[in-house]
Amino acid sequence: MYIHIEVPDIDGHPKGFPHYWLKRVFINSISTDYQVNALATTYVRLVEAALTEYRLGQVMLKEFWSTHTSLNLGAMHRSISHFENCLFDMNRAINCFIRLRRHKDLPVSLRQALNEERPRFIAAAASDQIRDMRNAIHHLEERVMDGSIEPQETFTLKPDGPETPHATEPGQTDKTIDRLIIGKQEIMFSDLAAWLSEMGRFADKLATYEAPREIAP
Question: pTM of the entire structure?
Answer without folding.
Answer: 0.90
